[in-house]
Amino acid sequence: MKYRALADTGVFVSELCLGAMTFGGKGGIWETIGGMNQAEVDTMVGRALDAGINFVDTANVYATGESETMTGKALKGRRQEVVLATKVRGRMGPGPNDVGLSRHHIMESVEASLKRLGTDYIDLYQIHRTDSYTNIEDTVRALDDLVRQGKVRYVGCSNLWAWQVMQALAVADGQGLERFKCTQSYYSLLGREIEHDLIPLIEDQGMGLLVWSPLAGGFLSGKFTRGQKGKGRRASFDFPPIDKEKGYDVVDVMKKIAKKRDASVAQVALAWVLANEAVTTVIIGARNLKQLDDNIGAVDVELTEKDVAALDEASETALPYPAWMDSLGSDRLPGEARRLEQAQGGAAKSQ
Q1: Three-state DSSP class for 311?
Q2: Which segments of the chain are extended strands (E)?
Q3: 3-state helix, strand, coil in the chain (%, to 5)
Q4: Fewer CB within a 10 Å sphere, N or C end of the chain?
Q5: Which residues partner with 86 through β-bridges?
Q6: What is d(CA 26, CA 32) in angstroms, rounded to the nearest whole number?
Q7: Residue 211 to residues 58, 162, 224: CA-CA distances in angstroms?
């Protein structure tokens, strides 16, 4: 297992993170997603930690708290070995204030998460998505208080627009509050939107990137082709949204590369995400040990530049505005850019 720095925290996390969304759930969407029982969770968590994974991610809303409870039990006796992450924002009860990013809900939720997880601190506490009803300064201040109280060590965000992340960072910097150290965002061969604005922001601001659903909800596992619709979660829970026709074309390219590299299609998908230097870790959410072991094997798959280029070309999408405007050639006169660079260099030396 390899490890990467989580932004500038000095904390190193495994480049694969065990996602706990498949833990627990009886009936409805959560059983479709996972429905794993405690014995299965204990075995999976133990296997992941033994393989060198030191990062575990869950959320209070997963199976309405059951995932956190199971995660806490599975980590009993090994809590110090992991960087433990969870999230807040989703509805946790029927009341009008049992949801959102208000100080009220955050303070209530962190106490409940700590109890379910069986720990007295959370390594990474993330807002799950935006809340249009709450002033971002209130949210950032509440998270800062949790860090100062020692209940949370670092804070992050998930599923925000780039401008919303920058807004939160500006509030934190302006008020001297704890800033988001990372964002957890969807990124896959069939979902490359964050390359246009969020990844540039991450690199500019020195943040970490935690990738969720790198297999596009299982579509890139190799089970889905034009002639084989596949089984599993995506067969009944069609999320995240993708262009399936384009997806089949991408899978065709992935299968050829997988054969050359003696790897699975899923491992190729994970290796492509890990090849992006902006990525800190990739969250894997397995339902059984076979899937987990296959995903862990992705860290040993090394794609060549030619492989990456082929995958990039197959998965390329039309540039959104203003990205296509930025891609236009420079309107400077020939030699002007170089003269400007030389002039700036001379000015710098004179200072």
Answers
A1: helix
A2: 3-5, 12-14, 16-19, 55-57, 83-88, 122-127, 152-158, 182-186, 208-212, 281-284
A3: 45, 15, 40
A4: C
A5: 125
A6: 9
A7: 13, 15, 21
Tokens (6 digits) for 94: 């029927």
The rounded distance, in Å, linking the Cα atoms of 200 and 189 is: 18
C-beta of residue 164 within 8 angstroms of C-beta of residue 131: no
> In this predicted structure, what is the pLDDT of residue 234?
80
What is the rounded CA–CA span in Å between residue 117 and residue 72?
A: 4
pLDDT digits (tens, 9 = 90+) for 169-190: 999 999 999 999 999 999 999 9
Token pair, residue 45, equals: 């968590």
Least confident of 190-199, 200-209, 231-240: 231-240
Would you say residue 117 has pLDDT above 60? yes
Answer for the pair 67, 58: CB distance below 8 angstroms, yes or no.
yes
Cα 194 from Cα 201, distance rounded (Å):
10
User: Reduced to 3 states, what is the DSSP secondary structure of residue 188?
Assistant: strand
Q: How many CA within 13 A on the CB side of residue 22? A: 24
Residue with tokens 């990739």: 282
Question: 146 and 176 in contact (C-beta within 8 Å)?
Answer: no
Tell me the two tokens of residue 277.
């230097």
Tell me, yes or no, if 62 is annotated catalytic: yes
Which domains are seen in the chain, by residue range?
A: 3-322 (3.20.20.100)
pTM: 0.93
Q: Pick the catalytic residue: 3, 62, 125, 154?
A: 62
292-337 pLDDT, tens digit per residue, is 999 999 999 999 999 999 999 999 999 999 999 988 887 877 777 6
Separation of alpha carbons 323 and 181, rounded Å: 26
Instruction: Write b or e for each residue in 34-54: b if 16 or more Cβ atoms lie within 10 A of its Cβ, otherwise e.
Output: bbbeeebbbebbebbbebebb
pLDDT digit string (tens) for 122-181? 999 999 999 999 999 999 999 999 999 999 999 999 999 999 999 999 999 999 999 999
